[in-house]
């Protein structure tokens, strides 16, 4: 299993003041391939010892759906149901996750990623459902998804530094599984001095770093759609990693909120200056690192930016002349009654697959 999983390629692209760790050379052109592929190999092996089907439930803000669908497609004894926010993923992402067929099915939810995630959690908490179905998740709420992701931080360090040099990593953040994987790598011995985190306009984590109490709010749609998360699930995991609380923040994480306008300007600037193409999510961390370099007083080795997806997955978004709007947000807000309707739909689907 390890030999097969380790074939997933990475690449490091050096620039004058930073390096980019490209994690989008796998089958679905996204960093989620690393965690999803390992989970599929592991669960398929365990499934050989079972006589009941395993159902994988997945909520996706964009890239997880394609990665999980690809990783689990055709694996015996395992069915996958992918919930995604209707109208809030790129057409390329949607086409990818809907292309597999067979044991992989998709359900479009007329709401946000947070709504999809809430439905998945509700299924896991439904004792009556769990009596008749074997359920598991391939989201980062399952630490089995992001534990293997910690490996590529060691790969990036090995390519860019000599031990024991202290590294600086830049990580685009949505549900915070990617950053959690990096912090896990640090607890295992990876020499890291500074973490730079970027969000889009859904800035719950930035507010947390500023001492906010972590109040939940409904996410707004942005160009970096895979980061459109109102309440990051893995925030509760980052706090003990850092031995901190909401009002006692570890100083080695600094965060920046990046707007859609900044994303567009960064993509255009990097393309013109370096002939290098950024996707909207990697653009957030490129801009965040640029802001950090402008204000930092301590000279460090070049930061390593984690590039999470290939630009081709967002062609239609980046060629659009307009950004997502608040009107679209209001149209896609689910009421409690609508959530109950969508859960009933999911419940019946799960029972039909068992």
Task: Give your account of this protein's structure.
Helices cover 44% and strands 16% of the residues. The protein is of the alpha/beta class and 354 residues long. The chain folds into two domains: 2-29 and 145-319, Rossmann fold; 32-41 and 52-140, Rossmann fold, CATH 3.40.50. The strands form two sheets. A six-stranded mixed sheet has the order 1-2-10-7-8-9, sandwiched between helices. 46% of the residues are buried. The model is unreliable at 324-331 (pLDDT under 50).
Number of helices: 16
Q: Could you report the average pLDDT, rounded to the nearest whole number? A: 89
CATH structural architecture of the largest domain: 3-Layer(aba) Sandwich
Calculate the terminal CA-CA distance, rounded to whole Å.
Answer: 27 Å
What is the highest CATH level, the class of the largest domain? Alpha Beta
CATH topology category name of the largest domain: Rossmann fold
Contiguous runs where pLDDT drops below 50 for at least 5 residues: 324-331
Count all strands and give the number.
10
Tally of distinct domains: 2
Report the sheet-strand fraction. 15-25%
User: What class would the helix/strand composition place it in?
Assistant: alpha/beta
Principal-axis shape: globular
Order of helices and strands: HEEHEHEHEHHEHHEHEHHEHHEHHH
How does the major sheet shape up? 6 strands, mixed
Give me the side-by-side strand order of the main sheet.
Answer: 1-2-10-7-8-9
* Share of helical residues: 40-55%
Gyration radius, to the nearest Å?
20 Å
């Amino acid at each position: 299993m390890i030999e097969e999983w380790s074939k997933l390629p990475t690449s490091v692209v050096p620039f004058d003041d930073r390096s980019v760790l490209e994690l989008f050379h796998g089958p679905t052109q996204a960093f989620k391939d690393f965690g999803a592929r390992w989970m599929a190999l592991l669960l398929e092996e365990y499934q050989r010892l079972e006589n009941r089907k395993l159902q994988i439930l997945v909520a996706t803000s964009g890239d997880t759906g394609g990665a999980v669908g690809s990783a689990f497609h055709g694996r015996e004894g395992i069915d996958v149901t992918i919930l995604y926010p209707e109208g809030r993923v790129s057409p390329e992402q949607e086409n990818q996750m809907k292309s597999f067929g067979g044991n992989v099915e998709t359900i479009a939810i007329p709401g946000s990623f947070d709504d999809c995630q809430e439905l998945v959690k509700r299924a896991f908490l439904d004792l009556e459902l769990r009596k008749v179905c074997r359920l598991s998740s391939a989201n980062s709420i399952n630490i089995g998804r992001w534990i293997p992701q910690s490996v590529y931080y060691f790969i990036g360090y090995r390519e860019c530094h000599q031990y024991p040099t202290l590294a600086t990593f830049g990580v685009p953040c949505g549900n915070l599984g990617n950053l959690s994987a990096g912090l896990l790598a640090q607890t295992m011995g990876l020499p890291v001095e500074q973490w730079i985190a970027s969000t889009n306009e859904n800035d719950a984590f930035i507010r947390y770093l500023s001492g906010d109490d972590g109040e939940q709010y409904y996410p707004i749609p942005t160009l970096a759609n895979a980061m459109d998360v109102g309440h990051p699930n893995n925030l509760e995991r980052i706090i003990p990693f850092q031995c901190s609380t909401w009002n006692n923040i570890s100083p080695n994480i600094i965060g920046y909120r990046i707007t859609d306008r900044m994303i567009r300007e960064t993509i255009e600037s990097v393309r013109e200056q370096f002939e290098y193409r950024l996707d909207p999510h990697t653009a957030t961390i490129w801009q965040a690192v640029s802001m950090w370099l402008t204000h930092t007083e301590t000279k460090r080795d070049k930061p390593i930016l984690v590039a999470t997806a290939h630009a081709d997955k967002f062609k239609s978004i980046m060629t659009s002349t307009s950004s997502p709007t608040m009107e679209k947000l209001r149209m896609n807000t689910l009421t409690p009654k609508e959530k109950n309707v969508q859960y009933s739909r999911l419940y019946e689907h799960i029972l039909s697959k068992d």
